[in-house]
Amino acid sequence: MKILLTGATGYIGKRLIPVLLNDGHHVVCCVRDKNRFSLAQFNTDKISVIEVDFLNVKTLKNIPKDIDAAYYLIHSMSASESDFERLEAITATNFKNYIELTAIKQVIYLSGIVNEQELSQHLSSRKNVEAILTSGKFKLTTLRAGIIVGSGSGSFEIIRDLVEKLPFMITPKWLHTKSQPIAVRNVLQFLIGVLGFEYTYNKSFDIGSEQILTYKEMLLKFAEVRKLKRTIICLPIMTPKLSSYWLYFVTSTSYKLAINLVDSMKVEVICSENDLAEKLNIKLLTYKEAVEFAFQKIEEQNVESSWTDAQSSKKLLKGVSKLIEVPVYGCFKDSRTEKVKDEAKTLDRIWSIGGETGWYYGNFLWSLRGFIDKLFGGAGLKRGRKNTTEIQAGDSLDFWRVLEANKKTKRLLLYAEMKLPGEAWLEFKIIDNELHQTATFRPLGVLGRLYWYCVLPFHAFIFKGMIKKLTN
Predict the structure, then answer these.
(1) Which SS3 state, helix, strand or coil, does residue 197 take?
(2) Quick check: helix, strand or coil at residue 320?
(3) Residues 7, 71: contact at Cβ < 8 Å?
(4) What residues pair up with 142 in beta bridges, in sequence order?
(5) Any residues with CB less than 8 A from the CB of 375 and at least 6 apart, and which?
(6) Which listed residue, 22, 36, 81, 298, has the most CB atoms within 10 A of its CB?
(7) pLDDT at 260
């Protein structure tokens, strides 16, 4: 089958691609920017990439007309807390209107469980999207999931941050809210299983494990897997806003996402009974099994996707191609060169930079800069990286976004997603056995220039030490 995959750079989309390819399907990946999607990892001609922005009707003409089925995996939960409902409705409407002009037979939509009368803004939006897609001329299959547990998933990483960093937690009362989590591998099994399965046409199914747990129970079970003793006290005095700040500063989530998560976590998400798992012969994993499998992936350095893959600053909306050529005029630069003793070793060090490895020199200052970034609503350093040795274009790397990672040209180019009065790039490139390390800053107004001169002494210390460590 020829399958259209929306949300191809997202957490589920990235994991679904290899499964579809292994089943012999041709996958057409919809992305807003081709430069943020690497085909190098797929050794097949059964995958293609098209640039489509479902908020821009003009780009929809890039969608092939001979599509058999489509996965709708588009969500805007991390967008502004006030407008993601409107954006999701527009996106769904544009998708429906155009996809009806193709040979499409089935659309599979991954949504959220919506079984309470008073829904969060996030779940209300998901329900509205389902209503829009239901009005289409194609057959719609809706899978409604609650908390998805897997290496790199937003919920997994948030729980991991809380459990591994805080032996004693004073938490909001919504930790008593009940949920029905599901392992990411089970989600993928459902998504593949319903493809072309006529029983599921024009129906919706709640999918989850067989366990109903409170968020507090999930935290404690996670601690059991990690062999950690944790004490949790829930207080009713923490307001939604205070809870959002609590999540934002303790975990790697963005503030906008924290607001929407807190809003959703106040609502119980429990599956309505159905026989889909039985019909598809899917063995549902328990929560603890899902956590154990996630850590197996982490230990094997085999995390296929992270929730941060689809996260990016508004500056990146203009496209990576507009940023990959580092500007020359009107910029401040810190340029350094150093002879390379062992090229292969230096490349490996560059490709391992950030995350748990750190920045090789002045790590305390990098951490301080990350903390300051968090205070001003930025990404901070907590996003880390999903693999300690491999990296590709589009990946998040602490408070940077990878624009180019090419070992053949020996170039790594990073773009800053921290809060700045301007734009910043950090480039590493080996030419003729010399490492060229360049930090470029394009200031915005007087504040941008003041910022550069304020951090100049720190840059001189950090960047000089870093290039020495990379080359020796």
Answers:
(1) coil
(2) helix
(3) yes
(4) 109, 204
(5) none
(6) 36
(7) 64
pLDDT at 373: 82
> What is the distance between the alpha carbons of residues 78 and 80, in angstroms, rounded to a whole number?
7
Query: In sequence order, which residues have a C-beta less than 8 Å from that of residue 93 and are 6 or more positions away?
Result: 132
d(CA 445, CA 423): 12
- CA dist 312 → 66, 79, 316, 396 (Å): 32, 10, 7, 8
- The sign of the CA dihedral 296, 396, 175, 204 is negative
> Side-chain half-sphere of 246: how many Cα atoms within 13 Å?
20
The encoded tokens of residue 99 equal 């996809």
Question: How is residue 136 annotated by DSSP?
Answer: S
Mean pLDDT score, 297-309: 68
Q: What are 440's strand-pairing partners? A: 333, 425
pLDDT tier for residue 209 given thresholds of 50, 70 and 90: very high
Q: Residue 288 — very low, low, confident or very high, per pLDDT cuts 50/70/90?
A: very high
* pLDDT (0 to 100) of residue 235: 79
End-to-end CA distance of the chain: 52
- Asked whether the beta carbons of 309 and 73 are under 8 A apart, the reply is no
CA atoms of 17 and 13, how far apart (whole Å)? 6
- Structure tokens of 28? 């057409």
Residue 470 φ/ψ, nearest 5 degrees? -70, -30
Alpha carbons 404 and 412: distance in angstroms, whole number: 6
CA distance 37 to 14: 10
Which of 263, 270, 254, 77 has its CA nearest to residue 157? 254
Arithmetic mean of pLDDT over the chain? 85
pLDDT tens digits, 53-73 = 888 899 999 999 999 999 999
Instruction: Tell me the pLDDT tens digit for each residue of 139-198.
Output: 999 999 988 998 877 788 888 888 888 888 887 777 888 889 999 999 999 999 999 999
Q: Exposure pattern of 43-68 as b/e (b: 16+ CB <10 Å)? A: eeeebebbebbbeeeebbeebeeebb
What's the Cα-to-Cα distance from 44 to each of 26, 36, 47, 66, rounded to whole Å? 10, 19, 7, 20
Mean pLDDT of 418-433: 92
Q: How far, in Å, CA of 361 to CA of 303, rounded?
A: 27
122 token code pair: 């996030």
- Sequence letter at residue 171: T
Amino acid at 230: R
Distance CA 75, CA 40 (A): 26
Q: Are 354 and 385 in contact (CB under 8 A)?
A: yes
Question: Residues 28, 6: contact at Cβ < 8 Å?
Answer: no
Which regions of 208-347 does DSSP assign to beta strands (E)? 213-214, 231-235, 332-339
Which pLDDT does position 194 carry in this prediction?
96
pTM for the whole structure:
0.77
* Predicted pLDDT of residue 80: 46
